[in-house]
Specification:
Its cofactor is Mg(2+). The chain has 1251 residues and is α+β, with helices and mostly antiparallel strands. It is built from 44 helices and 35 strands.
Amino acid sequence: MSSERDSETTFEEDSQPNDEVVPYSDDETEDELDDQGPAVEPEQHRVSREAEENRETFRKDCTWQVKANDRSFHEQLQFMNTKFFCIKESKYANNAIKTYKYNAFTFLPMNLFEQFKRAANFYFLVLLILQAIPQITTLAWYTTLVPLLMVLGITAIKDLVDDVARHKMDNEINNRTCEVIKDGRFKTAKWKEIQVGDVIRLKKNDFIPADILLLSSSEPNSLCYVETAELDGETNLKFKMALEVTHQYLQRENSLATFDGFIECEEPNNRLDKFTGTLFWRNTSFPLDADKILLRGCVIRNTDFCHGLVIFAGADTKIMKNSGKTRFKRTKIDYLMNYMVYTIFVVLILLSAGLAIGHAYWEAQVGNYSWYLYDGEDFTPSYRGFLNFWGYIIVLNTMVPISLYVSVEVIRLGQSYFINWDLQMYYPEKDTPAKARTTTLNEQLGQIHYIFSDKTGTLTQNIMTFKKCCINGQIYGDHRDASQNNHSKIEQVDFSWNTFADGKLAFYDHYLIEQIQSGKESEIRQFFFLLAVCHTVMVDRIDGQLNYQAASPDEGALVSAARNFGFVFLARTQNTITISELGTERTYHVLAILDFNSDRKRMSIIVRTPEGNIRLYCKGADTVIYERLHQMNPTKQETQDALDIFASETLRTLCLCYKEIEEKEFEEWNKKFMAACIAPINRDEALDKVYEEIEKDLILLGATAIEDKLQDGVPETISKLAKADIKIWVLTGDKKETAENIGFACELLNEDTTICYGEDINALLHTRMENQRNRGGVYAKFVSPVHEPFFPSGENRALIITGSWLNEILLEKKTKRSKILKLKFPRTEEERRMRTQSKRRLEARKEQRQKNFVDLACECSAVICCRVTPKQKAMVVDLVKRYKKAITLAIGDGANDVNMIKTAHIGVGISGQEGMQAVMSSDYSFAQFRYLQRLLLVHGRWSYIRMCKFLRYFFYKNFAFTLVHFWYSFFNGYSAQTAYEDWFITLYNVLYSSLPVLLMGLLDQDVSDKLSLRFPGLYMVGQRDLLFNYKRFFVSLVHGILTSMILFFIPLGAYLQTVGQDGEAPSDYQSFAVTIASALIITVNFQIGLDTSYWTFVNAFSIFGSIALYFGIMFDFHSAGIHVLFPSAFQFTGTASNALRQPYIWLTIILTVAVCLLPVIAIRFLSMTIWPSESDKIQKHRKRLKAEEQWKRRQQVFRRGVSSRRSAYAFSHQRGYADLISSGRSIRKKRSPLDAIIADGTAEYRRTVES
């Protein structure tokens, strides 16, 4: 009955979500969810009878088959997948990584295809074809071809440079080398040549090239230490261990070459912490799990060499599976710009259609009756109107600016180089500059609403530092001399008296050193002895120096602190630990290690002193230690007060205590302990129960305070970004207490913040869903939805939620369904309809719940998500993108951040660490989190302002230029004749008006970088899209229309009844065209001068240089010499020199320019005087504001008794190394032959049975 009941339960019926565990992965199967009960792994040297019995069930899920040293096995037909028609390829990926897009053969066709997918480029290609038809064109073909070739060429060169860089990066990785078994021997091979089933050898400090099964290593029991910084940004070492059978038999080259093991395991997936498989070898099966797998991207540490069998290669590796789908990112302005181009298309078609109708009407009324207009073609007026429609499409084509896209690319490229060259974002310690890895997103940096940040390695340095301690109720760690007098300035403690000191600890309390050396208070020495003995740190000697390897950086910091204070952990064996106590070496017998786990939140060690006394030492979180203290603890309250002080300083705290144990008491307890150690089921629970019996009536020694060292400038950066109305969410896999503590340290949280946890949020959302369901009656569709806030306004709230609660709240939990139900299909149409409706209701409920969660979270000033998986990080980012339509930025440093980085609108990687996976997937990278404020508040804001100014001006100048043709058409019978010379039309956007606007897009700045950082509120204009939107677009459109009217009608009026200086009328078409063109060039170039906020010599030179260039080229093109050479292409012979020697025409040009610009100057003056923006105010007072105000850190408000925010001691996310130490598997010793080991094991078994 119980089994049937279990098969039909759901997660909703289970217990509350566990804050300590990371929830399931996105690839978890239903069968894995069903199999959640405790299981005991069989002994490795015993034949696994259970595995054999369940082999068929296992095979159902484990369909990935690997044969060692047999490449032909993986090329069999059964492993081939059809790729394209009849072309087949192996399902086993090779180990080469490919991130590039083109090769030498595909570059030209693929790049042109991609470019012509852009509507504007395709439009101009069609236009070029139309211009080749003589019946409809009034413009020469080169007026379109020259700009089009320039656009395509510049874009192609940029794409080529980007792809060459990707080729180089791929080659660098693919050509790394390692040793592979070939022809019975290890031979050097490149990574790209490695295949599934190969046996490889890796050496110390080598990167792991693929996901491999560890077979053996140089360490005892084939242990292998790996650094996972590439995966998760953490630098503390983790250990893996091979199967005992492969450890014994596969040490030598010849045995590895003949190894023919067969592996069945799960298909490639993205679960970094799970692996399920079986090794079949020598007629025996051996279970495999994640502890035996080395993942690609990790680094071998402290292990001379190791051997492994490749299971997943290349794109199938877990690190690549975790990288997420590569998304093509485009900016908000890009989308807006495309919609505006489509709007211009519509306007162009409407104008052309109206003018074509006008021409048909004119032909019917005037053209047919004017003999002098007969062109020899007997076309009807309607057909002439149709031809003229296409003629106007060609003439007015410059309304759709062909050079817009290439100009945008040039500006973005220049802005990217400015980011790369910024010395204030250069990190000299690691020689790491900032790097813009994409050139398409710069202006979006000025529109960020939400930042999603990893914690470890991003906000923190992942370096723990011993700062303070409380011993016997006395706090140590302040700036004091040996006489206990406080000093604001004092030299740090000199540890040179201690030969074992590592010189890395900065400590300023000289009084503590004096107390240790004097020995007046035994508790002080006892305190540091506890730190030196109660841990699971491993030690080795490198060049005579002690080197500690800890399961967590916290534990390493404490042992290193004890070392510097004179209590040095020197060595350990399976049963002993050796400590140097102020120079005296003493060895203690270790009777038991009671290891840490996330439920116990403490660890203990029981030792026998050389004098024969038995003592228990314990360290752990204050919440669990205080429950287990003896009633008679005189310093309990003083220590509690010290813990509160440490917590107010955002230090990570931990309590230390001890207990004397009688021999008889220990012997009784030890029997229970040994029984629990060999319990066949629920071993962990049994051990925890036994631990509880001995860990009571403890005597409190004191407390330690560790600083989880933040990167420099993190609080200042977060403060600045908050003032810019940017919300920061922290998404981390770390513990809840640790993440909360970092929230206080970096000032995301403060004492006035009301913190809401998962259970609070779940209750609020449940209530909201009930209210929405109650309101969703018959009349729901007639009532507009009302946004109700979840919290009262004015309160400072923060949300801290774990991954398990996140799944619970967002209805992402997977259900355990009955296996019978899995096979049940709807039999009737009614059942099918009911099931579909039920599914839709569930989806609608899930969507509403997720939207409510996002609304609630966005009301909080800060959000911290802890114990979350890489997929959950990406999911949170996607929810905000989807429901808030906000621009998001994700920043991280490890492979577990890659999915989040790719999901966000902009991804930033922290470089300069060992792990570069996040950097390779990012859009921007730099070495320190603090550079983010400069990237956004300076480069991002400038880029946004420059791009908006550029686009507004670009549309304006093209409307002003093109719509002159429209006004001219009313005076030429709507005949699609141009108002300018053909060469002027060709060169207008390419030479005459391009350089000033490009330089404005590259160099303009409304205020300096220092003022941008000092006044973060300036950033908000980008978030609100104030500088470029449809309103601004239509203002530019109207401005262009009015300018084109002035440019056409003032010269037209001046030319109507005119006599020149020589008595001749200068009112011919060519002189009129020159007058309009000259006025246009001067107007648009002076207009950009009015738009420029930051003047340099280059800007001034470009404006006046463009005008000079126009007159120079015009006089050259209108010369008789070039007409003689190309009579059909240059027909304005002598026009410029004839027209521009007339003062009347110059006066006309000056009047036209003045009428165009003076209203603009007047409106700008009134706007800055009456309605000044924040930027205008700062510009006005910039001299007074030049002295930059130093950022002052907010004073913490200390309140006694605030213990909820203290971080429990982290130790490690998993257990420490206690199992390894107790079993002796980590201790170096001479290897015994396998026969001797089997004989010893048999004898031990017999003794156990006899007893």
